[in-house]
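Z., the sequence and structure:
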Amino acid sequence: MTSLSVDTNYRPTDDEPFMNERQRDYFRRKLNAWKLDILREAQDTIANLQAENENHPDLADRASSETDRAIELRARDRQRKLISKIEAALSRIEDGSYGYCEETGEPISLKRLDARPIATLSLEAQERHERRERVYRDD
């Protein structure tokens, strides 16, 4: 990995070569920061669940607490899956396939990647995929 000076004001633009080293570094940092945030939230959740491991004498309080815990654990499970998608995106940065649509091979727009850095499909391919999904779901 080439060492570049970190310019926190840098935003990828269409005026530069697609997925040049500066853009790859930008997305690498963005993905790693996102992953660290998720891991930090997971640690907070574990601490909160351990701290709240008290007995509630009232049945309604206990049920409410269990519901909250179940919701929190489902959210953490989604975050765990998100981390694996972030890891996959970081791997694609390293192997040079990051930023290119898995379906068409065309570049994914920088705007889309900035909004959803784990995207693997261009907007058009994603829309086609969702339309097909809706058709099959309606059957």
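The first helix runs from residue 21 to 51. Confidence is low (pLDDT under 50) at residues 1-5.

Let me know what you think.
H.
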